[in-house]
Each structure stands twice: as structure tokens, then as C-alpha cells.
Amino acid sequence: MSLLPGMFIISAVLLVAAGVYCLLATRNLIRILIALEILTKSVTLLLIGAGYISGNMGTAQAFAITLIIIEVVVVAVAAGIVLGAFRHNDTLDTRKLNNLKG
Amino acid sequence: MNMTILTILLAFMVVSAALCVMVRNLLKAAIALALTSAILTVVMFMLDAPLAAVFELSVCAGLVTVVFVSAISMTKPHSREEIAAKVKERLKRFIYLPFILLALLVVMLVVLWPCMDFSQVMKAGGAGAKVQEVLWNNRQTDILGQIVIILTGVFGIVVLFKERETK
Fold it and tell me: Rounded to whole angstroms, how far apart are CA atoms B52 and B42?
């Protein structure tokens, strides 16, 4: 039981590192959404882990469900925006999305 | 709870997330993301969070994967020549991730692990309320917010995915 908090924190930090690295390194719009998903996965893991350790699983599950709902709506709307950008520019490369450049 | 299984699952989760970032094919990346969600679901079941686990499995591993696969299929894939030209450049950008993750793991195990003391937090734990009681009695505003967010998402999807009339 005493090892649990450390394991959750380490896994969550590694997931955040993978997500942030993907956000920084990628130039593909869909892969940016995947990076956001990885980041939210780490937050979900940390929420559930914190709830289990402190004995408040009800509250942790309520927060996790709220987070999942927000996550799916954000991804769905962002996917629509990505498709709109693709229709306009015919590319998913972020370096070529320079229509608003002055 | 079996700590060995939990440790293996958490390790697999990190590995599948790293795979999801590093793999070249977007479809494979979406499937790796679904695998990450599925592993997180098992972890949630092991931690006595069945309701959140069902949500995670059905929504994150199911619906979000469908959204990603649809988005990928509606966009144009790179040609073989473009992929061949970009392989080296892409490898250069993503090759550092495993080393960064390994370095972070070693730093946290060596430096942070001895300093982690959660005995106060763990003592404070009680039986806790059920998720239904928490959602309907204590967090009613969250439910209202969820309804508003879902409606916003539905309207956003209707507007964004609408096919424009061609002249």
C-alpha cells in the first residue's frame, strides 16, 4: 500500500512527459489531439489513484467521469476543426497553416 | 490487490503511450491510444472504480477511437515518396522520447522515491461515499456543467462536420 502513491505519480509523470514531448515534436494536427488525449489519461490515472489512496473513491470517480466527458467533447470538436482546416488548406502540417500570417 | 500486476499494467500503459507517440502511422497511433485507454480501464477496475472504468472503456477506448479513425480516413495520407523523404527527419525528432522517459524514471526512482511520504494522506482515508451519492447530492453543478458541455459538443459537431454546399 505504501508503494502505491509513488507508482501512480511516476506513471503519471511519464505519461505527461510523453504527451508534452509529442505536443512539442509533432507537426501533425491529429497527432496533437492524440497528445492531448495522453495528457488527460495521466490526469485520470492520478485522480483515481488519489481517490483510492485517500479512501474517497466516490468523489474521485465523479471527477474522473466529468473529466472523461469534457475530454471526449474537446476531442470531437477539435477533430471537426482539424477537418475544417484540412478542407481549407489541403494539409495537416502546422507549418503550412499560415493563412492569417500578416 | 496484486501489486505486481498493477506495476506491470502501469508499465504497459506508459509503453503503449510512448508507442502511440513514436509510431509513424496515424491509424496505428489511434489504436495504441485505445490500448492505453483499455489498460487504464483495467487499472481502474483494480482500484475499485467500476463506473469510471466503464466510462473510460466505452467513451475513451471506443468513441474517441472512432472519432480519430474517422478523422484520419477523411484526410489525405502521405504518398510513399513523401513518407520515404520524411522518415529520417521524423526519426530525428522522435528518437529522444525513450531516453527522456528512461532518464525521468531513473531520476524519480533515485531522487524522489526516498522523499515520498504519504502516510498522512493515507491515514486520512475513510470509507467514502458512493459515486451516485456524490454526483447527485454533492456535485450537482458538475452534472449541469456536463449537460451544457455535451450540448455544446453536439452543436459544435453539427456545425463543423456539416458539408458545405458547392456552387
Answer: 11
pLDDT in tens, B32-76: 999 999 999 999 999 989 999 999 999 989 999 999 999 999 887
| Separation in Å, CA of A100 to nearest CA in chain B | 20
Counting the structural domains of chain A, the total is 1
Sign of CA dihedral A65, B17, B91, B104: positive
Interface test with A, best of B15, B160, B162, B163 (most A CBs within 10 A): B160
Q: List the domain range (segments joined by +) for residue A46.
A: 4-96
For residue A27, what is its C-alpha cell?
A: 507537426
CATH of the domain at A29: 1.10.287.3510
Is A100 in the B-facing interface, judged by CB distances under 8 Å?
Answer: no
Indicate yes or no: CB of A79 within 8 angstroms of CB of B60.
Answer: no
Q: What is the ipTM of this complex?
A: 0.92
Nearest of B68, B27, B60 to residue A80 by alpha carbon: B68
Q: Which chain A residues are Cβ-neighbours of B71 within 8 angstroms?
A: 30, 33, 79, 82-83
